[in-house]
Design brief:
By secondary structure, this protein is of the alpha/beta class. The chain has 8 helices and 9 strands. The strands form 2 sheets. A 7-stranded mixed β-sheet has the order 3-4-5-2-1-6-7, sandwiched between helices. Strands 8-9 form a two-stranded antiparallel sheet. The longest helix is centred in the first third of the chain and has 20 residues. The radius of gyration is 23 Å and the shape is elongated.
Length: 260
């Protein structure tokens, strides 16, 4: 999952400096080894978005190298960077040449036409401290670009109230594309809670009805089994008539702790 982030105009006008810093911090957090790492940044062509990209370039260029989980992860990161660098439609904006035993943060810029054409290079996550920025011409092209994307774990909006009114059509598109929608937040912070969804439409996950973080994870990792006409001594304790574990159970459509 490349976890797209949308930078909307009024937000950039009001707090572009803050956004640049926060975004860079999120990209390199944990050496970029979060599956919710923001891998694609979208914005409408403007002086403010150009300034954000320039600030992001400076900040990313000055971020230190970090040690990755293992040598294999570093090898994959290096390979992913080389694939981006070799593509004619992708420009390297910031970051020292990748070498040595640590991962160096990188920033790239891709032509929006690659995304519109469904180029899979922009749909595949590079696990590490790097991200790609894309400029779109207008709201119509932004919607077109979002519609061309694969399923994602997250999709984030950096926006002011005025942006949310002007770009209201974006939200229904994001609902179809991601399992978790963020507003004025960065996807690398995943709360473990009843409401958390850490999944999304394919290929972000193979089954978007489950989650790997939060209480809904029980639906993803457990397989239901029905016991019919079994004697009490062969049933799991949770299913026995006397309810020895004092569980809250669904019996004939009603939640109860009573014995059957």
């Amino acid at each position: 999952s490349i976890n797209p982030m949308l930078m909307l105009p009024e937000a950039l006008k009001n707090r572009g400096d803050q956004i640049a810093q926060e975004l860079a911090d999120s990209v390199v957090l944990g050496c970029g080894q979060f599956c919710t790492n923001p891998g694609l940044i979208l914005g409408i062509k403007s002086p403010e978005y150009t300034q954000l990209i320039e600030q992001l370039s400076v900040i990313m260029a000055n971020k230190p190298a970090q040690t990755m989980l293992n040598a294999g992860t570093l090898k994959s990161y290096t390979s992913g960077l080389s694939h981006l660098a070799e593509h004619a439609g992708i420009q390297h904006l910031a970051g020292q040449e990748q070498q040595g035993n640590q991962a160096l943060p990188q920033l790239f810029k891709a032509d929006v036409e690659l995304l519109l054409a469904g180029n899979q290079l922009l749909q595949e996550e590079i696990f590490g401290p790097t991200t790609i920025v894309i400029e779109v011409e207008d709201k119509a092209q932004l919607l077109q670009a979002l519609s061309s994307m694969n399923g994602q774990l997250t999709a984030s909006l950096i926006a002011e109230d005025q942006d949310l009114e002007e770009f209201a059509e974006v939200v229904p598109v994001l609902e179809e594309k991601a399992g978790r929608l963020l507003l004025n937040g960065y996807p690398t912070g995943v709360e473990v809670s009843d409401a958390m969804v850490h999944g999304g439409p394919y290929p972000a996950t193979s089954d978007s009805r489950g989650t790997s973080v939060g209480t809904l994870a029980i639906d993803r990792y457990l397989r239901p089994v029905c016991y019919q006409n079994y004697p009490q001594n062969l049933l799991p304790e949770a299913l026995r008539d006397e309810n020895p574990l004092n569980l809250l159970r669904l019996v004939n459509g009603e939640m109860t702790r009573d014995r059957i």
